[in-house]
Write a structure and sequence with these properties.
By secondary structure, the chain is an alpha/beta fold. It is 34% helix and 16% strand. It has a single domain, classed as Spore Coat Polysaccharide Biosynthesis Protein SpsA, Chain A. It contains 6 helices and 8 strands; from the N terminus they run E-E-H-E-E-H-E-H-E-E-H-H-E-H. A 4-stranded mixed β-sheet has the order 5-7-6-8, covered by helices on one side.
Length: 175
């Protein structure tokens, strides 16, 4: 599991979620995640990408309203999470939007009522979250440039050594 400044990435994400959410589930097919003391939810649709993990956690969630964030985005803070939960309006899904077809589907609000639509997409062999977005009430959320939670690393994914070095530099400059 990837680390940033001596902490697992998931620890950053969980710390932020704890400040804004009353239920935290971890989508994983690995036993490694159990060491963090949270419920670990395996995919029901195996090898079907991120939509499978979101689907499994929505099914397991006690709450109707869920915020989904990828474990490799450690700088999504509680203020942003609360903003997204308020910005959802009447949508069953609300995701940050940059225009055209540019969304952040792994840093978004999902309602449990989206489950039947997701299941229909699985049956059709379509695992693309943006396609699901367009099939139900969806709220594209434009992130205000002047929002107090907005910063250059908000949606920074850590997938490579270069990404990790950039994140370490960000934390160093922030300190």
């Amino acid at each position: 599991m990837a680390e940033l400044n001596g902490r697992h990435l998931i620890e950053y994400v969980v710390d932020n979620l704890k400040q804004a959410c009353d239920e935290i589930l971890v989508s994983s097919n690995s036993e490694q995640c159990k060491k963090f003391g949270l419920p670990v939810i395996p995919d029901q649709y195996h090898a079907k990408g991120p939509m499978a993990g979101i689907h499994a956690c929505l099914q397991a969630a006690k709450n109707e309203h869920c915020f989904v964030v990828s474990v490799d985005t450690p700088f999504v803070g509680p203020e942003f999470i609360r903003f997204m939960l308020e910005a959802k309006k009447d949508g069953l899904i609300a995701a940050p939007w940059y225009g055209k077809d540019q969304y952040e589907p792994l840093c978004a609000y999902y309602n449990k009522d989206a489950l039947p639509v997701m299941e229909a997409f699985f049956k059709k062999g379509n695992y693309k979250l943006p396609d699901v977005f367009m099939s139900l009430p969806f709220t594209p959320v434009k992130i205000p440039a002047d929002a107090s939670f907005q910063h250059e690393m908000l949606f920074h994914n850590i997938n490579t050594e270069e990404d990790l070095l950039r994140a370490e530099q960000y934390l160093k400059n922030k300190a």
